[in-house]
Amino acid sequence: MRIPHRFAVVPLLCACLIGSASGSAYNARPKLVVVIVIDQFRGDYVERYREQFGDSGFRLLLDHGAYFADCHYDYANTRTAPGHATLFTGAYSNGHGIVSNEWWDPQKKKSVTSVEDDATQLVGLGGSPPGASPHNLLSDTLGDEMKLATQGKSRVFAIALKDRAAILPGGFSADGAYWIDHKSGAWITSSYYRSELPKWAQDFNDSQRAEKYLNREWKDSDGNVLRTTAPRQGKDGSPAGFYEIVGSTPFANDYQFEFARELITYEKVGSGPGTDLLAISLSANDILGHQVGPDSPEMHAMALETDRQLAAFFDFLGHQVGLANIWIALSADHGVAPLPSVAERFRIPAAGVSPEKMRAQFNAILSARLSPGRTTDYVRAFDYPLAWINEDAFAAAKIKEADGERLVGEAMKQAGLRGFYTKSQLARGDVPGTEEGLRYEHSYSPEGGWYVMGVPAPFSVGSPSGTDHATAYTYDRHVPLALYGLPFQAGTYHTRAEPVDLAVTLASLLGINAPASASGRVLTEALASVHRADNSSRPLSRDRFTPAGLVAEQRGTR
């Protein structure tokens, strides 16, 4: 349904705000800020499918908001956890500390996730399994600054299928962060936030909403079945869980938006005395993208389905809160490389490698040099292209951190990587004065014991079958950035923008401090100039749904 008809009742539904287009968290203008992060939604998808989108999904933001076509992360560790932390702290890993999704913990002698926290328990599951929290963040977030500025009047919520994609956007002071149990699909949280699920969330789980997404067929616009959600066996031979069965289909996004509507309704989000923040991370695009790549018919169909889902959600927001009372931002946590087979079709050198085989190669090279006749695991794990080092093995050889990391880096080059940056080197800021050097400096974190960041060749991915991200190349760094609402001047902007600019821009417009370690800039070129409207009576028109049109409507000149 086209926007002018779909939102024809906006004046009756909006609590219109009299005043300037710029808001202030102190006076609850806007009532709500919604940030949507589409996991692994590469920046070029927007133009690739733009003509096929409807009027009220992506194009509400593209045609009636400020869209930055040249938005790139300026770091190399393009993973989910660092990306979400970057968007909401306005800093890169050297500011917020999240270096990857997981890392080696030298104290615990095991790999840990970016959000796991043994001091907490999961809430919403039987027993008391270890929980999760934002305790690894080294900076606060936009939501935290909203809380500080309003002394808690602003409320902050975040939801995703993945724990890290809900917890890191929510920050330290979120009122709620929710994600799913991968096996059952039930929505859960952590005792960091509350001791039990709110009644509305427990009722949602008890009504078995997840089950209605099983035994369904996902079809494209021509009626071809792309995937089914029939129960099946998982990779390990046991019954596959909800995340595995449903997660790579658009039904996963439907499920998330269904939960988001319940949260908004029962928590009365957007109706409090302060500006509220809601972060939604859509995970299905990433789960599917790793399997089929960015150029597949399935990814095309997923983008069109996401457009439909956004349109329906924006319609809900218009009725529930009023679009004139909301700012909407949309971006992604990272991009993705093409499948190596697709790149090779056009004679572009590409490769899909096995990280475990490469790790064995590193260890063979290092063992031949340091412990002849005995194979030693000098590299504990290799999350392509990032190597986690066995500190104890080097200590036994009386080799210190900087030297051990350098030796691993040299082994990585010998095995085929183009170059490397060690943790010790990054900690000193000892990088070339090049764009690549700066991107790796931005990727530094003190977390994770000893490590080395490898520099792979372009179009080389750490997956022997599907594809991946986690490099400093444009296909991994390019993401969309779109802003919709009263302060934003509609248009497509080709000035350089970065995801760190999002939190800084929103903070400035809300009249609050940016997050403590933020390094972004205010996107001033996209801010609307508010002019005094005349008193003439004008008929309703399509421009009513632009920021300028909403301003005029709020002032009673429409």
Describe this structure in words.
34% of the residues lie in helices and 16% in strands. It has 558 residues and is α/β, with parallel strands linked by helices. The chain has two domains: 3-336 and 474-526, 3-Layer(aba) Sandwich (Alkaline Phosphatase, subunit A); 351-461, 2-Layer Sandwich (Gyrase A, domain 2). Strands 6-5-9-8-7-12-1-13-20-2-21 form an eleven-stranded mixed sheet, with helices on both faces. Strands 15-16-18-17 form a four-stranded antiparallel sheet. The longest helix has 24 residues, at 297-320. The chain starts with a helix and ends with a helix.
- Radius of gyration, in angstroms, nearest whole number: 24 Å
Largest sheet: 11 strands, mixed
Going by CATH, the architecture of the largest domain would be: 3-Layer(aba) Sandwich
**What's the level 1 CATH class of the largest domain?**
Alpha Beta
Tell me the domain tally.
2
User: Strand content of the residues, in percent?
Assistant: 15-25%
Which structural category do the helix and sheet elements fall into?
Answer: alpha/beta
Taking all residues together, what is the mean pLDDT? 91
**Could you say which overall geometry the principal axes of the C-alpha atoms support?**
globular
**CATH fold label of the largest domain:** Alkaline Phosphatase, subunit A
Distance N terminus to C terminus? 23 Å
Side by side, the strands of the main sheet go: 6-5-9-8-7-12-1-13-20-2-21
> Which stretches are low in confidence, meaning pLDDT under 50 for 5 or more residues running?
1-20, 531-544, 551-558
Query: Portion of residues in helices?
Result: 25-40%
In total, the number of strands is 21
